[in-house]
Amino acid sequence: MKELDYSIVEEAAKQLYIKALCELPPDVRIALKNAYAKETNPAARSVFDAIFKAIDIADTKKTLLCQDTGLPIYKVKIGSKYNWNGAAIKKCLSEGARRATQEFPFRSSSTHTITRINPQTSVGPGLPVIYYDFADDVDTLDILMVPKGSGSENMSKMQMFYPQHGIKAVKKFILDTVIESGANPCPPGIIGVGLGGTADLVMKLAKDAIVRPVGQRNPDPMLAEMEIELEEAINATGRGPMGLGGDISCLAVHIEAAYTHITQNPVAVNTQCWPARRARAIITPSGNVTYGY
Amino acid sequence: MSKTHHLTSPFSEEVIRSLNAGDIVYFDGPLFGIRDLTQIHIFDKGNPPPVDLTGMPCIHTAPSLRRVGDKWEKICVGTTTSTRMDRFTPGLIGQYGVRAIIGKGGLYQGSLDAMQKYGAVYLAIVGGAASLETEQIEEVEAVYFEELHPEALYRFRVKNFGPLTVAMDSHGRHLYEEVGAKIKEKLPEIYKKLGVI
Lengths: 293, 197
Ligand code: SF4
Fold this sequence. Notes:
The complex is a heterodimer of chains A (about 290) and B (about 200). In chain A, about 40% of the residues lie in helices and about 25% in strands. Chain A is α+β, with helices and mostly antiparallel strands and about 290 residues long. In chain A, helix 1 (about 5-20) packs across helix 4. Chain A is globular and about 55 Å long. The mean pLDDT of chain A is about 95. With about 200 residues, chain B is an alpha/beta fold. Chain B has a single domain (about 5-195), classed as fumarase, CATH 3.20.130. Helices cover about 30% and strands about 30% of the residues of chain B. Chain B has helices spanning about 15, 35-45, 90-95, 110-120, 130-135, 175-195, and strands at about 5-10, 25-35, 55-60, 65-70, 70-75, 100-105, 120-125, 135-145, 155-170. Chains A and B meet through helix 3, helix 6 and helix 8 of A and helix 5, strand 9 and helix 6 of B. Bound molecules: iron/sulfur cluster. Iron/sulfur cluster binds near residues 66, 151, 152 and 275 of chain A. Iron/sulfur cluster (SF4) binds near residues 66, 149, 152 and 275 of chain A.
């Protein structure tokens, strides 16, 4: 087979950043509609009205839904049945993010962490954030793009509990973290929770949780039940859309878990705002690209 | 019961005092865009705004604009979190006569006191809905302190701008705090149901 032209991957990486910023995934739209149907507070209902109008305008005018273009994150899954060039993929993702920013153009939200100089490229040391994973039995390259805004990302929290604190402390921590974050993450969004692993893995699990389509439960019944319990608790607070009071304070709680150390009990929360933006591309070795979510 | 108001800026004290926490507002007319640097320039560096802000609404934003000839065109205008700019708010209201602050997340007690004293409100916008905000901005009429762009002082003209929720009114009510107080009350019950206490 002839070697793939990697400019296809770069172009996809560019299109994905733009698509994610402009087109809200269908599962999030459905979750917002379902939430609106349940909301009884008039001010909260007007928040939903504005949300639906904003989505419509972004759709018809192909404009950004939210002005915060976020930090670019790419999650790639490399199929084992084709000889994908990892180093080329890495370069393409970075170039794609840069080109999206400068060619669309939209503001770069990425900056030097000390000098605060923003080269208006969205990329730099450590950015885009890239996660690599591998899939058996397929030959495709699966790229999921997530622009992560700061209002929600700034509310992230993790805690290394001990086993003696049990699941009780973990659940309380999750609820308290959501309550403390108030209106900042533009609720109602997705509450991503990581359980177990190491300090870094637990936060990554929480990030994995926010990109799961709304409406899907964790396949482990114990974790699925915990998701429902926490959703009920969060919505019972009455914080409401945009923190102004109402019945719906979150669209979903998603939990991802890993094994952990016998003396550890880590938990992390990563919140996603109501514009739970993400876009996906599946690329075949022959260079066909299919876009989705 | 929450009321919906359709207003025109600049606002009179009487109109502003008729608004109550929880009401919904839409308005037409001029709207000023401000951010951290704009207000540092005005208050910390002592440069009074070169335009009259009496009765005006101000929004916490850093707009994406494009320069076309001698005009500015909108690309994307969204709203940022207000709390960082709390310390400037009593000055905007007391010294310059601003009657409405638009943002997300709310402000603190000092701002609420100034709103009560002079007759002003905080209007919460729907965060994340920048596409809608941008659509409702008809024109960028002027940019003052241009060297500070994207944190200059902008005069926009808006049409049916909203929905905005009156989150802090001129009668001392603070919606975010009321919601917070209710959460505190309910929390023991919620903890119990979740089985964490
Ligand atoms: S928290 Fe999310 S929706 Fe709100 S302004 Fe930031 S990125 Fe946009």
